[in-house]
Known about the structure:
By secondary structure, this protein is mainly α. It contains 4 helices and no strands. The protein has helices at 10-39, 52-61, 75-99, 106-146. It starts with 9 loop residues before the first helix and ends with a helix. Mean pLDDT is 89; it is low at 1-5.
Amino acid sequence: MKGMNVKLSFIEFSKKLLKNYFIIVTGITMAIAFLGMNMYPNERIPYDAFLSPLILGIVAILPSYIFYSKNELTFKQMLFRKILHFILLVITQLGFAYVTGLLKNAEVTFLLAISVFAVYLFTMGISWIIDSKTAIDINRELKKMRE
């Protein structure tokens, strides 16, 4: 998650995770739609399936709390946490899918793992775009204040 190495209060950190939650839910919804249209084009999903992205989003955001630190992280600490985060993310998503009976065979497991990776990249990319826009706006305002 880009931009997590800035020292934030727990409340600010949680707000950032809430933003990421909605990005993750969007990514999960797109992944489910894409996989469903390509793998099971003639099947229809029941209404309770609409809750899946919301629940999977909660499961996906929980490992993100390893990024919280009261002190600013060094590059090595952040890199270690990013690697650990991705591993935990895959484990929690596959574990949740296994417990709920979503993993029916090796192909589904592989596609879910690829989907987790795609949603991870999507979330990092969208977060980076939003954070970059925020940084540009802040710098623009600071420049106006100096003038």
